[in-house]
Amino acid sequence: MSEYWLISAPGDKTCQQTWETMNNVTSKQNNLCANFKFHIPDLKVGTLDQLVGLSDDLGKLDIYVEQITRKVATYLGEVLEDQRDKLHENLLANNTDLPSYITRFQWDMAKYPIKQSLRNIADIISKQVGQIDADLKTKSSAYNNLKGNLQNLEKKQTGSLLTRNLAELVKKEHFILDSEYLTTLLVIVPKALTEDWTLNYEKITDMIVPRSSTLIKEDGEFCLYNVTLFKKVVEEFKLHAREKKFVVRDFVYNEEELAAGKNEITKLVTDKKKQFGPLVRWLKVNFSECFCAWVHVKALRVFVESVLRYGLPVNFQAILIQPNKKSMKRLRDQLNQLYGHLDGSAAGGTGGNNDVDIAGLGFGSSEYYPYVFYKLNIDMVENKSTI
Known about the structure:
Oligomer: single chain
Strand order of the largest sheet: 2-9-1-10
Shape: elongated
Radius of gyration: 34 Å
Strand content: 5-15%
Distance between the termini: 17 Å
Order of helices and strands: EHEHHEEHHEHEEHEHEHE
Largest sheet: 4 strands, antiparallel
Structural class: alpha+beta
């Protein structure tokens, strides 16, 4: 199951005692969940006013960072195309799978120095993820344009004779070239009218070269013919041909241009292959960056909310819970029994769903528990929002 609960409870005589009590009641005795200590370092507390303001801002940052994390994961799935089934194994955090990263969470001191204020750490994360978002827009736009151009050219190679690129189908011998008076046209004839074409094309106008039409290609609906006639009657021929439901395709046989067209699709295929590897690597690296940043935001929220709830000195145990799906209501009841005394008004929780956004002591939040509570859904493949 990809849903986790991140909670904190005030320390008893020791934080270890808080952990053991909670773990015994929920995991060892009742098998309601799996529990993991969630290590949050000694962060700088600041003033109460700063914490209240920061609590609201962290709620917004949490939503933003999760959105960008999921955006990177989604785009990686798009880029992988027919290898999309490998998306899950490409979504790693700090070179490990997502459950392992969050259940063994260690604060990244190098990226987010704990000597900085909480506000500064939040700003570092915001700027880091904002830059990833901006870079993703640039990279995805360039790659999507390349992919779109390639798809358009490929469609022209495989569509109906009415629309597809005819350069792949015709040969030099199908045309009268370098004649002062004669030219060759390419005509698309519906299959139902092929007999009409064969019997009557020489009569569409005057000055058509007899027996100059040959069948070049056919698909499910149409046939492609050539026909040679005098240049002076081309417009008249097009007009009368259209009346008979024969479509003259504009086409000039030019070997250099045909070669250039073939080279263009080869170049686009090559360019796409060249960009694919580096883009996948970039997406994997920056998914990891975003996901790790998101979990650090959750840690900041737990820290700030725990200080606001339980007071100073800082004394709380953060715990990551992986609930058993069938036991979630019983688990909630056990937690309320354990911690209901912290706030009698909240013992049953409020609100009708499990999506929690506690900010500034929980005022105005959609659901409130007597203990600090946040939810993480780490299923990035299905892309379910968890905020």
